[in-house]
Structure formats: C-alpha cells, structure tokens
Design goal:
The protein has 2 helices and no strands. It is mainly alpha-helical. Helix 1 packs antiparallel against helix 2. It is rod-shaped.
Amino acid sequence: MDKLTKNIELQLWDFGQNTRTLQESRQEIASGWEDNASRELNSRFFNPHENDSEKSIRFFHDQVDNVKQMENEFVIIETAVEEANKLSGEIDSSLQYSRADIKQAYHTLDECIYSKNQSLDYCKNTQDKLDKLAKLKQLHNSGKY
C-alpha cells in the first residue's frame, strides 16, 4: 500500500501544480480579458474550479493521511494475526500432547482396575482356601476326618 499512497501523493502534487498554473495563467490574462464571454467562462468554470480544486486537494490529502493510518493499523493487525497463528499452533500442539497423556492415563487406569480385580479374585480364592483349611482342621481335630 505504500506505493499506492506515494502514487496518490504524486498525483495530488501534479493536480496542485496544474491548478496553480491555471490560476496564474488566469491572473496574467485577466486584465486583457474583460468581455462577456470571459466573465461567463470565469463564473461558470474557472472560479468554481478554483474553489473545488482547493477543497479537493484538502480532501485527498486527508484521504492519504487516512490510508497511511490504515496501513499502520494493517501492520499491527498482521502482527497480531501472526502471533495468534503462532499461539494457535502452540495450543494445538499442547492439545495433542494432552490427548496423548489422557489416553495413557485411561490405559493406566484400565490396568489398575484389572490389577485390582485380579487382586480381589486372588484374595477371594485365598480366603476360600483358608476357609476350607479351617474346616479341614476342625474336622481333623474333631476326629471326623
């Protein structure tokens, strides 16, 4: 956009130069140009042109200033977008690691639950065997065996 504003500024400068040249030429020939036709041309074209050109130049200079401000804001926005993209990538990477950690945690939990159930089965089997041994001992001690 920098080329655009430089181009506009150059065209504004040219427009100002042409306007100034036209007005200087009008002043130079004004004394010898005092008929009805010249007054008609001045009132219909040249005088309004002089007023309009000054307003136009001010307006376009304001627009160039606005474009420059927009260019600066665009650079700020571009920087913010780049930073957001970078952070988004970091968040995505962290999310992938988190998902892998959660998957590993569920796997570990499943192993723990399996081990707990296996331990409970061993404990029940052991208790059943101890109960049988206690009955056998009791039978043996009672002489009924």
